[in-house]
Write a structure and sequence with these properties.
Structural class of chain A: alpha+beta
Strand order of the largest sheet of chain A: 1-2-4-3
Oligomer: homodimer
Number of helices of chain A: 13
CATH architecture of one domain in chain A: 3-Layer(aba) Sandwich
Strand content of chain A: 5-15%
Radius of gyration of chain A: 21 Å
CATH topology of one domain in chain A: NADH Oxidase
CATH class of one domain in chain A: Alpha Beta
CATH superfamily of one domain in chain A: NADH Oxidase
Distance between the termini of chain A: 47 Å
Shape of chain A: globular
Largest interface: A-B, 125 and 124 residues
Chain lengths: 257, 257
Amino acid sequence: MNETLKLIHNRRSVRAYSPKPVTRADKDAILAAAFRAPTAGNLMLYSIIEVEDQSLKDRLAVSCDHQPFIARAPYVLLFLADLQRWWDYFIKCGAPGRAEASGLPNRRPQTGDLMLACCDALISAQTAVIAAESLGIGSCYIGDILEQYETHREMFDLPPYTLPVTLLCFGYPTAAAAKRKLTSRFPGESIVHKDRYRPLDAAAMDHCFGDLENTFRSTARAVQYENAGQEIYCRKFAAGFSMELNRSVGKMLENWK
Amino acid sequence: MNETLKLIHNRRSVRAYSPKPVTRADKDAILAAAFRAPTAGNLMLYSIIEVEDQSLKDRLAVSCDHQPFIARAPYVLLFLADLQRWWDYFIKCGAPGRAEASGLPNRRPQTGDLMLACCDALISAQTAVIAAESLGIGSCYIGDILEQYETHREMFDLPPYTLPVTLLCFGYPTAAAAKRKLTSRFPGESIVHKDRYRPLDAAAMDHCFGDLENTFRSTARAVQYENAGQEIYCRKFAAGFSMELNRSVGKMLENWK
């Protein structure tokens, strides 16, 4: 296995950081790699906010479903899907009017543009993660940045055609964090389909969720729920943070209609 | 610069493939790396369709805005944001009813879940891209998979709680493709913001789009349009494929309301 594959296979999310600082040179190396990520039509439909102000990190540690380690992360990057940069440029260029004069549509950014921009932002984010990993710097994605849109919009002065799609915390891992057990994954057969999507039949479902069920049965929660599906639905899917995430994203999407 | 950073900095999209086959071992190495990508709550909210049937590749080469090289790609992966696997499991487990009995919401997948699933799918896709690159295998993202939803839904039997978020073509590059000039990027200062989003003022806009304007002025299109913004708006943003992409994504989102 080559070095790159090794680091992909050895990566774990790091939430406990050593005191070793992430230097400006480290940060620039991570960003330079992120910029080389492929981007649709080379339009770079994303922005990155470097969150260096401690008071902003402190607020994120609360707004992102109460995860105090965010406040302690040496380096924090907020990835935005961003059509605003292009939209401002189009306006400056008189582009919508020029299109209309040619009989083309004069339109504003919509959900399709947003999806392309989310692709760009996330492809760049994962490139940053792998670049950091190659430098010995750990990372953790914070999906909860999709919650509390109004709060994050105010904190970061987000204009309407941006969407905070993911947050990344970076730092050198503590010795314990570096050795933490790798999380398991579903069997590959449950993730990969041949030519057409094949819903899981009963046997395939047992194969996919079997380990999860076995683990669940050894926990205290097995008294409360009949199976792991009920537990995860109640503890995650129907939980407050998940309801908030869906409300918040619904609000974000209103800008793109 | 370490090996991983080198390959990130040397990557270009590859659309011309050498006759060297992508072996089953190569494919499995790419997939195994993709599975190790970080995933929200370890839920793996994505699926991958291996497109091996030539007739499906031929149809994609048409449906994805007429890009014949897709039909010639030795290995094609369709990445789906996927809540269907979990939803089917929740139903089998009687989870929504169990939640209701506890006074919790009984809800179906929504746009927030979809955004998290898109994150998972794209983080996995870019991990696959970098893994492939480390094996000498080139790749190209096809954002146009977001178009023609109804066609792709039928071609791949996509159930409602999946969304085809990106398509990847893989193959060993031809000698020419491997040496193709690296595409330029916007200056880092135009992409990275410090602590708060800062819209580009006139000077920052010139800095960001200056190279693009200079290149535009040397093309035949400079006769037709006043500036690069007008050209890109008319040729991309207001073009048929872009209108179709936004229509198609609007249709996809109807499943998640």
